[in-house]
Amino acid sequence: MDIGYTAITQGYKKMPHSTNETFFLFCECGYGIVIINFEKYIVRPGSFISVYSDDYFLIDRLSEYAKIQIINLDDNLFDEVTARQSADFWNFWIDNRVLYMSAEEILQMHAWFLNVRWILSSTEELQMRDFMLRNQLSTLFTGIEVCCQDYMKEYHSKTDNNAHRILQRFWRLLVDNCKHEHEVRFYAEKLNITTHYLAKITRKAMGYSPKECIDWQRITEIKQELRNSHKSIKEIADNFGFESSSYLISYFRRHTGITPGNFRKNIIFTTK
After folding, report:
1. What is the CATH number of the domain that holds 74?
2. Is residue 270 assigned to a domain?
3. For residue 148, is pLDDT > 80?
4. Residue predicted with more confidence, 17 or 77
5. Has this prediction a pTM greater than 0.90?
6. Please, which pLDDT band fits residue 172 given cuts at 50, 70 and 90?
7. Final residue of a domain: which of 155, 188, 217?
8. Which residues pair with 67 in a beta bridge?
């Protein structure tokens, strides 16, 4: 993880980038043009630029005295701190890769970076710093979603369709119910469709089956419990509706390659 000012070198401007990390650029001052997946976007003060892993990204031009702050996250961390974002927001954000903030929102961004710098400079205990930074990141992305509500309504009024609506409702149902409901049939019935049709929609949109989506969300939330609470494995198993601790351990290891206990012991949070 890396948060702070970044130097945009001439070489960086000229070479396209595709990495296994997700990063965000916040323009404090200056102007320019960036290219994301071959589409051009204007950069100006208050621009918040999202670049996901495997994106084609190129800085086409940037004024000499531009100041850019970066938030650089590995994919696993990004998934965890954005696990509660709505499907509506993700669909909007994928198609709007540069967000243009108001004067008030720019001030909030400055305050957010100041808080992060304070955490990095004053918190020596790694687990405490880990916890505080993750909370800061979750707050940031939730705040951005709140600020985009009006734009999202306008966007979805133009792009809405039946499959899109079903996928949005499915993901919201997942967020709200995955702790205790892990059968595809439950979600299909809530959506008033067949399990076959739900599978067709999720595979076309995301390349995953409904069951894989359910498991991904459950594992993400179990990781949050392991990382951010002192609950025992048995308590977490009970919270997620597992029959026993051993069943949770087996399920977690099957999807992650390690046990919940080892995951909790081996949490490593690297800040550059």
Report:
1. 2.60.120.10
2. no
3. yes
4. 77
5. no
6. confident
7. 155
8. 29
Q: Quick one: tokens of 255?
A: 């999807």
Other beta carbons within 10 Å of 269: 14
Q: What does the block give as tokens for 167? A: 């996928």
Q: Which residue has the tokens 């702790």?
A: 179
- b/e for 7-31, b at 16 or more Cβ within 10 A? ebeeeeeeeeeeeebbbbbbbbebe
CATH code of the domain containing 201: 1.10.10.60
Contacts of 93 by beta carbon, 8 Å cutoff, 6+ apart? 50, 148
Rounded Cα–Cα distance for residues 270 and 1 (Å): 6
